[in-house]
What does this fold into?
Amino acid sequence: MGYLRRILAVLLPALLLGAAAALPAHAGELIVADGDHAVRTFDPAVPDPREVALRPPRAAAAPSRARAATARGRRAVLASLAREMRRKRISATDLRRWRRYYALSARTLRKLSGARATQLRYVLGSVESLALQGRLTATRMPSVFIELERNRQYWRKLPFPASRDQVSFRGSQIIYTYFPGYGLQYHPLSTFKKANALHGFCERGEPGCDRAALKQLLDETTALAVRRSPRFIAWEYLFNFGGGSPPWMSGMAQATAIQAYARAADLLGEPSYVETARRGLGAFETAPPLGVRTTGPGGGVHYLQYSFAPRLFIFNAFLQSLIGLHDFGKLTGDARATRLFREAEPEARVEVPLSDVGDWSRYSYRGAEATADYHELMREFLQSMCTRRLGAIYCEYAKRYRGYQIDPPTLTLEGPARAVRGQPALIRFTVSKLSAVEVKVFRNGGLAFTRVATFRRGSGSFSWTPGAAGVFRVELAAKELRTGLGKRDRTSGEIEVTPP
It folds into this structure.
């Protein structure tokens, strides 16, 4: 195993360093902006960034470099505000506030350069783009203009964040995430997961319980809900992502929102939260790109992660959508939510086995294998379905996927029993999971041959040409590569080499 240890000593630190660079270092880390200052702090209610990471369906295009605050875009924004005021859909106070946010952002942008200007330029340009498309509607304006103002406040001179850093502002519970080139973007999934965490602290009587913060969070998100169609409201994302143009929505975020409102309504005695959540159910009755209801690979009802990607079936997001609908129906007695859960849950029973590759899980149907974080998220959702007694299949796969994480590889030497001197022989084996496999061949205590290579689950072999006749001892060792736990297995055997 010496050679294998040397190889892994080089490879694993690089892999782990790459993973660390891709994600903020600590779960619950939050940048809190307060005027001209910002501090990094730990908030136990803020989700681990890996729980709320957005994985694009395909490579995203570069952020728009178009010059913001064009005369045409400015006219469209001001015309949209005036139109909604004439229709009495916004108040005079709103009109003045949002015009001021827009004007201050354009003015601030002219004073910025470099990467800071790039971030604010994108956000300001996205406001103009919505206006030019006729999509800057009254119910969308709060989310759009508050996000614009938050970016103006941040990019003037606050510390530059790392990619995917989570940011909040003093006096607010809303979570924004920094996406390079796109500025700070409102992240509904992260925000509603925070609401669920606060609820959990209170339910369990833990120190993190803050009922006032929970109420403030949900009051703020209620104001940011968008009437996406006459049938439902949604909490939208406002930036280009993975081929999708804003505004788009996520079934997972929508279900988490519905779940959070129902839980808080019960905890805080706020029946209005139930009504807010109920207004979001229509997203699960509406086809994309407006809603998230589609037909899954099993032929049943599937709820999409991304409204702009109707053929991307993400397993963990679908399960969380079902959990959110189930919980809302159970907590409130809402027959519509329960019906939406029951219509799609049979499809989940078909899809869960499709996520299994034999020693790990897939992220999406016919897609790549999940990262370690997404595999764990899938396992957690399966366990949540199991705990709710929604079907034995969820318990079975939660246990199986846990085994994939903690069980050592199983290595079996298949042969050969005999070989001929001077002629190539295949040292054959099977391994149960992705592993680095090392072979060593000894004769009379001396090392005659050694190799190490990576093999996927199934059959593998090393080619060896014996240079002498006699009895050789073969030692095989495997070390699993996905989890970093270093689980190993060993096996050995003998090969009799005869003269030609």
